[in-house]
């Protein structure tokens, strides 16, 4: 079966109850056969230990690549190097290199120490990897039929990309230049910020390819099942307000209807992206299992049996976790 490749993002649990469920969440998502599972990293290293715990669960409960997000905002070369070395010591060799958001009330000049862009962080991680792990980072190339990261034997340094522009960017060219700088620094994969229209991504791919970006650019998909979450996400990411989707969510009269709409929107978007040539799907799971499984099932990336197995609870607790 030539199904679409996919990957997941998890975030470190915020309380002990969810922490206890994380190994099970990692195991069940891992059993679906993602190319990798990435784990977010709080700005200024605020979640460092909890991020590492989740990465370790992925390694212990699955055979899937565990990818660590790392940020460099406000950090020194020495402190970031110590984190990279600690992660490599724990067996984590794949990274998503990010600058991180500038905290509110602080200027960029006040906030950056020795590292001020994700490109610089990429270069630092690449240097440390080189000294610790023999061999260069190979380009991620499409497999015989489909892009398969699982079959890529070398490490991954992924970076962020913004189909609708980063909020701090003057224009598209600045975003393309930033992405090219990250590629030149050694990144071999990009993962996008969420967006709501397939054309946003497909247009950006054309522009990036024309500008010389050659690395795969994986679209980030986020199932959004409430207006409150939509507001929070748009505020956090600076994405344009998706009028039509927001109105449709607003007019739903039950949680079940909002959930169905969110899953349907993410599934239709995923379908259009894959049909348009996207190399796979990166799903922001919010530590949930059921919506990602439904989306993957609807686009035919997993079988019905896989979906049913993933939804079996080990106990009677709900399948969601924050
Ligand atoms: P960069 O690529 O360094 O730059 C962002 C923008 O700054 C560029 O688009 C460009 O406009 C400008 N810029 C960069 N370099 C230059 C230059 N040399 N000259 C002029 N302008 C420049 N945040 C977290 O805190 N933790 C996470 O785990 C996390 N995970 C994420 C995962 C994904 C897939 C994405 C898309 C974002 C994630 N973020 C995370 C958010 C991210 O940290 C923010 O979007 C941040 O504001 C920018 O990070 P970056 O790595 O894109 O920065």
TrEMBL record:
Catalytic reaction(s) noted: (6S)-5-methyl-5,6,7,8-tetrahydrofolate + NAD(+) = (6R)-5,10-methylene-5,6,7,8-tetrahydrofolate + NADH + H(+)
Which Gene3D superfamilies would you find in this protein's record? 3.20.20.220
Pathway(s) it belongs to: One-carbon metabolism; tetrahydrofolate interconversion
Keyword set includes Flavoprotein: yes
Q: Which Pfam families match?
A: MTHFR (PF02219)
Co-factor requirement: FAD
Transmembrane regions listed in the UniProt entry: none
Instruction: Provide the alphabetized UniProt keywords.
Output: FAD, Flavoprotein, Oxidoreductase
Taxonomic superkingdom:
Bacteria
Similarity comment: family membership: Belongs to the methylenetetrahydrofolate reductase family.
Name of the molecule in the record: Methylenetetrahydrofolate reductase
Q: Which organism is it from?
A: Gulosibacter bifidus
């Amino acid at each position: 079966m030539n199904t679409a490749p996919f990957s997941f993002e998890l975030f470190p649990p915020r309380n002990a109850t969810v922490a206890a469920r994380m190994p099970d969440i990692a195991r069940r998502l891992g059993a679906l056969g993602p190319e990798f599972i990435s784990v977010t990293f709080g700005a200024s290293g605020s979640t460092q230990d909890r991020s590492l715990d989740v990465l370790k669960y992925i390694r212990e409960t699955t055979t899937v690549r565990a990818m660590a997000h790392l940020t460099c905002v406000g950090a020194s070369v020495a402190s970031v190097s110590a984190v990279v070395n600690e992660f490599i010591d724990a067996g984590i060799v794949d990274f998503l290199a990010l600058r991180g958001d500038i905290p509110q009330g602080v200027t960029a000049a006040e906030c950056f120490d020795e590292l001020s862009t994700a490109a610089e962080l990429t270069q630092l991680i690449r240097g440390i990897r080189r000294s610790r792990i023999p061999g260069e980072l190979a380009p991620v190339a499409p497999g015989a039929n489909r892009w398969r990261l699982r079959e890529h034997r070398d490490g991954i340094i992924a970076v962020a990309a913004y189909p609708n522009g980063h909020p701090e960017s003057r224009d598209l060219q600045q975003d393309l230049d930033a992405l090219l700088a990250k590629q030149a620094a050694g990144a071999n994969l990009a993962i996008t910020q969420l967006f709501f229209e397939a054309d946003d991504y497909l247009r950006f791919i054309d522009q990036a390819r024309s500008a010389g970006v050659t690395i795969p650019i994986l679209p980030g998909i986020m199932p959004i099942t409430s207006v409150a979450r939509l507001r929070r996400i748009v505020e956090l990411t600076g994405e344009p307000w998706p009028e039509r989707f927001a109105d449709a969510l607003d007019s739903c009269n039950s949680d079940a209807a909002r959930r169905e709409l969110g899953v349907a929107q993410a599934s239709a978007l995923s379908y259009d992206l894959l049909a348009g040539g996207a190399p796979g799907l990166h799903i922001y799971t919010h530590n949930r299992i059921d919506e990602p499984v439904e989306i993957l099932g609807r686009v035919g990336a997993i079988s019905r049996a896989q979906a049913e197995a993933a939804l079996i609870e080990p106990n009677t607790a709900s399948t969601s976790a924050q």
